[in-house]
């Protein structure tokens, strides 16, 4: 496997349909990235949960998942589970983010996600971020849509544990959900670790990847 080590990662964009998606899908990667690159600019957009307790959870959580970063978070008020009916609003929000930010990396849901809100956002992202590397994070759910991602960020053991700790601490509104527990988070990270010869990892779907084999 080739290690992808972007030289200039000074700014990243995070997109999610719901509060907690980013933490579940990419929390360990965010901890790894932000710890290694103090001062990283993180521009985050979450489409739903604005004005509710879920927004408060998300703000506190992302602050801890992005230590030392310059974090800017917008949480909109689109209804949960209704993204197709609010397509124009979602598209405008994604385009507005793109107009403000030219990120080195983009984290977003992936097209194979069975949740219609996740899948809808995944389709919108490349319409606005056309010249960017997009990493599609995965979220365990009832639908059983875990696929075969091809890109991995290995996680140090303490990072995998810290991710599980922060998910437990910051999202009490989700504690009754059957997919929301430490065993799930660490279990998937352990499985993805096996696939990339690490103890733990987060995995991402990549739609396109351009090489520069000449280097220089
Ligand atoms: Zn979600």
From TrEMBL:
The keyword Lipid metabolism does not apply. InterPro entries: GlcNAc_PI_deacetylase-related, LmbE-like_dom_sf. The keyword Magnesium does not apply. Keywords: Zinc. PANTHER family: N-ACETYL-ALPHA-D-GLUCOSAMINYL L-MALATE DEACETYLASE 1, N-ACETYLGLUCOSAMINYL-PHOSPHATIDYLINOSITOL DE-N-ACETYLASE-RELATED. This is PIG-L family deacetylase. It comes from Streptosporangium longisporum. The lineage of its organism: Bacteria, Bacillati, Actinomycetota, Actinomycetes, Streptosporangiales.
